Amino acid sequence: MQLPVDNFRSTKWRTPKSIGPIKPTVLQIALSCTVGAAIGILLLISPWLAIGCIFAIVVFVAALIKPIFLCHLTVLAVALTSGMERGKPVPMLRTNEILLAASVGIAFIIMMVRKNRYSVKFDRLGVAILVLVLGTSIIPGSYYLVRGSPLSIQDIIVLLAPFQYMFLFWMFAYIPSSNQERLAIVKFMLFCATIVAIVGLLQGAKISAVDTFLNNWYPSPHLSQALRVSRITSLLGSWNSLGMFMMINLMIIWAFGIFRPSDLGWPAILVEGGLCIACLFLSGSFAAMIGLMLGISIIAVLLGLYLSKKNIFLFFTMVAALTITFMLFPELIQGRIDYQFGYGGAVPATLFDRFRLWKDIYLPAIQKNLFWGINPTIPTYYSWQYTESQFLSLLFSFGIVGFIAYLVWNGLTLNFLFRKLYTYRGFIKTISAVAIGSIIVLFIAGFSNAVFTYSGTADYLWITLAMMTTTEGLIQNESV
Q1: Residues whose CB falls within 8 Å of the CB of residue 71, separated by 6 or more in sequence, listed in order
Q2: Is 266 left (phi over 0), alpha (psi -120 to 50) or beta?
Q3: How far apart are CA 113 and CA 406, in angstroms?
């Protein structure tokens, strides 16, 4: 079947030689003067604002020429800037949030001017997203307003977070015009994750330039304690965020490496897989390590694992990467083991700390405000600012309404993904298995980790889900 032609994308702007030099119109001159004046004014206010304006213009022009550029830019922002300190360099916001908002706005313009617009079927996934937005944003937000609760900027950002994921999903569902473009996005996701892994390994090696860079641009409570507790944070600002982020990427590498190695290429699979698993190991996240083993097992069952020389080679490459990591960072790894099990027990010490935290602080508070929740964010008068649980975080911020919405979202999304898994083959089938494994693992990890607050992890999950939407005329060739 011939795929529909995207006339907007395929248009080539050419000037016939017979026309000669092009004379700018009055509108073009006025627009240029306006943009130049705006940049000059912003420069007087803040150099960062002027640079941002110039960058936005460049992005806009590039996106008009090649819209898929927006997806790559967003992936880059998610991986490399979501762990930045809020308010740096732009007040109140993170860099990735600004870039996402700009990308969505440009994407909307592109969708409007396209001559051929692809229809996207969301099916049950659309209902799932609607339920999640209602239960974790609109309903609790309305309640807080009616109750007269004073909401800080951070509270509002938390309430708007579901919309951020919804816009991210929409952009990655509509812009890619072929499975080749979707595969290119996956490759770029892994490339960006590899950059994060390399920075993490250099941090573990105590490279002073890397430490200075992270302290200047990615300061966080975890970063200040990382080496003391024998862990690393890389560009994500949190060791648990880093571990879960590496886990998601390793599940993608595993699925494509075992079942579609030609899509990524063996050099990329081995290099990216080795660096990511080493970084995961140094993050010290036991939840991510256990989640990875569970995730790759789920993917193997869903896609049908078979033994081959290449598969065995991939497995032993990962083992070799772990062995080399242990040899290069013995003090870091031994320090982490001593920190968790030095008391002589078999259960990690941080898990005991979580039990005590839940019993003494969060469970009593949630019981008093079970239905509607307490506050979108944890007030500063709490002795510990993290619930250390996705489920308790939902109950604290959105009450039982948000908790039920989260459960419904998981159920409907898994139902949608299983239908895709058994309907399509090739790329769609493989990425469906990755998404199913990710959701199941993150749901289980949610008992002891607030996984949807982790930088990068939730964003990559939503990008993966967006690739499951059926864009008419693009993937019928993969239908069973």
Answers
A1: 171, 172, 175, 176, 181, 185
A2: alpha
A3: 36
